[in-house]
Each structure stands twice: as C-alpha cells, then as structure tokens.
Amino acid sequence: MPATENPHPPAASPTDPLAPLLDFATRHPRLLVLTGAGCSTGAGIPDYRDADGAWKRDEPMRYQRFVADPLARKRYWARSMVGWRTMARARPAPAHRALVLLAAAGRVRLLVTQNVDGLHAAAGSGNVVDLHGRIDTVCCLGCAARSPRAQLQEELLRRNPRWAALDAGSAPDGDADLESSDFAGFEVPACAQCGGMLKPDVVFFGENVPRERVAAVRAALVESDAMLVLGSSLMVYSGYRFVEDAVAAGKPVAVVNRGRTRADPVVALKVDHEVGTALEVLAAHLLAHVEPD
Ligand SMILES: [Zn+2]
C-alpha cells in the first residue's frame, strides 16, 4: 500500500489538474481578475446558472419592467425582503479570502466582480470594481440619493409584518421564491427625501453598466499581462466584453469555472474546477514563490 501520510505540497505536480493554472499565473504576474457567482457559492449564495449556462430559475427582473409595473415591483421587493436574510448572513468564502492573498502578493492589477454581494470587500479586498453594483445599497430613481439596504429592510418589515415570518430559497441577487403569494397587498416605501421610486443599487438586466466602471476595467486591462475569469459562465455581455477586449489586445485569458462558458472557444486556458479550492492552491503556490525584497 502506498504511503498516504505525506501532505500535498502547495506546488502542483505535472499531473495535477491545476498545474496549468499555476503555470499561467506564474507566467503572467499582473492579472485582471473577473469574478462571478461561482466565487460566492461557497458563501451559501446560490448560482444563477447550471453547468450548461442555462437559467436554473426564472430570469431575474428587467429594469423596464421594474419601473413600469407596480405589481412586479411589489413582487420584487417582497421576494427581496425575504431573501435579504440570506444575503445579510453571507460571509466571505475561500475564494474571496484567497483573492486577498493574491492581491497582497502583488498579482492582481484589478479585481472586478459581477457579483453584487459585497463579499470581496467584506473579505478585505481593497480596490474592487463592482460591475453590477451592490445589493446592500438602495438608490432613488428620483433624486439619486443612496441609502443602506438594511435601513429599507427595517421599513419593509415594519410595513409588512405578515410577510416577515416567511422563509424561502434565495437567488444570487437576494431574491426569493414566494410564487404562491399575492403581492398586491405588499407595501413598498418611497424615497424619504423626494418621494421617488427606490431601486436596489444594482444593474438590472436591460440596464447599462455605468460608463466609468467600464473605463476603469479597460484602463486596468492595458496594464495587465493577462485576464483571469473565476466562477462565471460569462453569459452576460457586460462581463464577456472584457474577454473580447483582452483577446483583441492579444492578452491571454484563463477561466476557472465548473461547466461550460461563453469564452471557452477563445480562452488560452480553461480549468473545469471549483473556484475556492483552485484559488487556495494558487495562492499557496504563488506565496511560496514570492521573492523576498
Ligand atoms: Zn429621492
């Protein structure tokens, strides 16, 4: 029987499925990192899509419907109120913590996330571009005032005590399943400053990512050696466009994701692997090979 007590060293052997990833990161020290839902599944926030990139659930709310349809808005906030507990409880997962280590080792030119859960910042990552905004913030479509989502939560619970006891499965945008409910009686407060319509400060489908965020990512790409995509199927164009930019600039793209991604035909490296453990191995490998100053 072979000896089993020898622990795995951080450096991968040539037969290790992560060896190509370690090699990629070693050859490209300045990375533009783009993360998606696969980074947060370890934090208990479910993924939107299955391994083939198809929707696991209803497609999320579109902006045009949110602003035009009062009942759809009530339904959104009712589901959000119930799902908020999952979002508020979520704590950083191994992927978030490993990315803090990679940044500390000077390997991350910029960290960009498609996630709205704020968990990169919660883990201690400093410079994060939240491409699609943050679910813990609410904005007013009338006066553009921003306020904490936790504050709105108190108001939603106060106005809708009957709903407060409900529980449900939840989706990555803090939404929840309450399909059998009647949403007409759900009360949604207006902006306390101007009476305007409140909306989570996230980019809905049908809405554009703010221009300055796109510009910040493009500027960082210029100063990066390569792009590393983590836990995203890249089915949404707002993230995929940076893969197109990288490829057009002749910069290699590596993807770590469970299942198919939109970028598979154009990437230099695809690693079908759970993101958290892949990043832990990568961080250990790079930190073990840091040259002392
Ligand atoms: Zn307002």
Descriptive account of the structure:
With 293 residues, this protein is an alpha/beta fold. 35% of the residues lie in helices and 14% in strands. It is built from 10 helices and 9 strands. It has helices at residues 19-27, 63-68, 70-89, 94-104, 119-123, 149-159, 161-164, 211-222, 237-248, 275-288; strands spanning 31-35, 108-113, 128-130, 133-140, 146-148, 198-202, 226-230, 253-256, 269-271. The strands form 2 sheets. The protein has a 6-stranded parallel β-sheet, with helices on both faces. A 3-stranded antiparallel β-sheet has the order 5-4-6. Helix 9 (237-248) links the parallel strand 7 and strand 8 (253-256). Helix 3 crosses helix 6 (149-159) and helix 4 (94-104) runs parallel beside helix 10 (275-288). The longest helix is centred in the N-terminal third of the chain and has 20 residues, at 70-89. The radius of gyration is 21 Å and the shape is elongated. The N and C termini lie far apart (44 Å). The model is unreliable at 1-10 (pLDDT under 50). Zinc ion binds at residues 140, 142-143, 145, 191, 193-194, 196.
